[in-house]
Amino acid sequence: MQLTAAVSFLTILHEESVSIHTYAHSFLQIILLHLEHRDAGVSNAWLETLLSVIEVLPKETLRHEILNPLVSKAQLSQTVQSRLVSCKILGKLTNKFDAHTIKREILPLVKSLCQDVEYEVRSCMCRQLENIAQGIGTDLTKSVVLPELIELSRDEGCSVRLAAFETLVNLLDIFDTDDRSQTILPLVKSFCEKSFKADESILISLSFHLGKLCHGLYGIFTPDQHLRFLEFYKKLCTLGLQQENGHNENQIPPQILEQEKKYTSVRKNCAYNLPAMIVFVDPKNFQLELYSTFFCLCHDPEVPVRYTIAICFYEVSKLLNSGVYLIHKELITLLQDESLEVLDALIDHLPEILELMSTGGESSIQENKLPSLPDLIPALTAAEQRAAASLKWRTHEKLLQKYACLPHIISSDQIYYRFLQRMFTIMMTNKVLPVQKAASRTLCIFLRYNRKQEQRLEVIQKLIEQLGQGKSYWNRLRFLDTCEFIIELFSKSFFCKYFFLPAIELTHDPVANVRMKLCYLLPKVKSTLKIPEDKHLLQQLEMCVRKLLCQEKDKDVLAIVKRTVLELDRMEMSMDAFQNKFYEKDLLDQEKEREELLLLEMEQLEKEKQQEGRPVNEKTFEKKRRDIKTPTALPKSIPIAVPGPSPSAPSTSKEIKKSKLIRSQSINNQAFHAKYGNLDKCASKTSTAAYTPSVSGLAKTSMISLTDDSFRTRNASSLPPSFSPNTPLPSTSRGTGNSVDPKSSGGKDPPPRKATLHGTRMVMPTLIDGQHSLVQRLEGREQRHAGAEAACAVLYPGLGARPDMGEAVLGAQGRVCAEAQWGPGPL
């Protein structure tokens, strides 16, 4: 109950539920009353609450409610617990009053408690002297605090001497050079001498503060003193290792076990202070002075020592700079350590360490990557296998994430032959999802920096065949994860060329989870498209979305599809030219694409160099860089999305127009099927909007103007027998309806054209064979405009023949001209 009340009072203070004045009036006396509770835990809880309250109370309240009663509570006549509480309160009050009040009212109490008859009180007050010194300033510290510390450092109580030593180390910055050389240095030397001879209890604290102590006293050491402190540190680093015994662990006496634990803590503290000691001796002297010590710490039999040195390894590498090659072997040793704790500590900064190793500590990147460290790759692979065989999957995940730095460290061929296949194996066999994702992302980074096109194509083919087309749905899910990483790391054109079609093909996947994950990915997939270059891919995407929307039977997937359709509809796409809205993203994508092309150029130059047997000069390099614009094609087994019709394609303009005409007719079949009524609802929402030549408008228009053979086949069975599946029907396109400018029409907007099964009079087409002659009549630009304008005049007689309408309708010229030939169906 008391503990709960103390915590509640503290919570009220932190949340500022009441004002400070109300808090002091209502709760302060209750807190002071329970400070001397007979239960130590309860007393400490109320004390912590009071120390937090002191931070916010006004000065007058502190003086009357806390400081004045404290004078009587700190007397020897009070209990030990009361005096201990007084010591901690005094340390907190010092920062709340001015120097005059501290000198007159607080310092006398401090001196009295430093001379207390109980060692516990003296030790507690000694540890508060650091706070008091920071509150009273340098002059009073030298005249009042320092003499007390010197006296306490000679105290008969071990804990008092230890507290005095630690306080002196923490106050080194306050004292001037004379105080350090004449007063503190002799005390420190005395501590070091006594620690081995008669007072081993101070060894742990001394080893922990030794680095800070050497740094603080660096300027006043003589060469002899410098050497003595260095030798003292070396001795601590091997403390307990020289004692050999032939007893089993179960036969070792408890006193010996306790002593060995103490020695292990000392060596662990020495490993923690190694970077400070390297600065102490100068990194240039590391090989001569500290390398043997560093070697011993890396090979220490106790795991905590090796764990600590693994944490400090990066700091040591930075300090050594150009001398980092000296610790190559120790890096391999720690990578091969049998304890995964050591490996986990080392890999936190593994990329930085390997970069320093590869560059020799210099800032410039060298072309030869780690030529003098042949054991690195076996050590890295062995470390990964040990992590994979253990139950510590987080260490395995972290290691795989850090392997992403390897393209900057070792050659592309080494990664391809030693690491890539392992990443595939982990992705396909490991049972931990975060580990699989880490392996997938690292593999994508390996692929990103691979310098051989043949190897890149092989990796892409494996990803598509073994993951995207794999028998296990789990592998297909990982393929979608890989696609997400590809979108993040590669350029848009790279994804569209190799992964766009395999990704959207998973809309036909028999497993609902795969289709669901694909739906979440579709907005990112669409963001990789550029208009008009990737217009055909946009049509493929929207066709797949329409299939999901109309054919999906799983209610969970269907709900996600509907949300995804809305998100896709709101998305704006980037053009080939830079836009202000997407400028930064387009600039980043252009940089990625430039780097990918540069890799191809470098590969081409290397091949020419090998064939010709002579180096390629910079002019040749720049010429190749300008000439190489498109990557090499993939094998036939990999689907490639070629952006747009090429000028050199064998298809003629007649065939293109014919395909457009056929494509424009397919939507009519879809509109008459009762199952696809949702599409009509979606179309009617935006059919009355004015036409704008924006990218989003283009994307919305093309949603309804796609072809789907499966739709046409299914709808054919639902039509009357007199209609064949290929019979063209009256077309309803959002693009035509949106092309009317309401401001210039001078009247009301025409009602949206909506084709439904009921209430629609369908006109039997009489000129099916007229399609080919119609295409032939539209060869020239003026003829196409004239046909479009004529179609608009027939469809909307109230508007008259307008030249600007021809341009808007020109994108759907086959369908519009078909209506001009056969007449539109009445609505």
UniProtKB/TrEMBL annotation:
Main localization of the protein? cytoplasm
User: Molecular function terms in GO for this entry?
Assistant: protein phosphatase regulator activity
Gene3D superfamilies registered for this protein in UniProt: Leucine-rich Repeat Variant
**InterPro entries in the record, alphabetically?**
ARM-like (IPR011989), ARM-type_fold (IPR016024), HEAT_type_2 (IPR021133), PPP4R4 (IPR039918)
Keywords in alphabetical order: Coiled coil, Cytoplasm, Phosphoprotein, Repeat
A Gene Ontology CC term for this entry? protein serine/threonine phosphatase complex
Q: Where in the cell is it found?
A: Cytoplasm
Q: Where are the HEAT repeats?
A: 106-143, 145-183
Q: Does the keyword Phosphoprotein apply?
A: yes
Give the source's domain of life in one word. Answer: Eukaryota
Q: Where is the composition biased (Polar residues)?
A: 712-742
Q: Where is this region: Disordered?
A: 608-658, 712-757
Per UniProt, the ranges with Basic and acidic residues bias are: 608-629
Any keyword Methyltransferase? Answer: no
The record describes its quaternary structure and partners as: Serine/threonine-protein phosphatase 4 (PP4) occurs in different assemblies of the catalytic and one or more regulatory subunits. Component of the PP4 complex PPP4C-PPP4R4.
Its annotated function is as follows: Putative regulatory subunit of serine/threonine-protein phosphatase 4.
Q: What is this protein called?
A: Serine/threonine-protein phosphatase 4 regulatory subunit 4
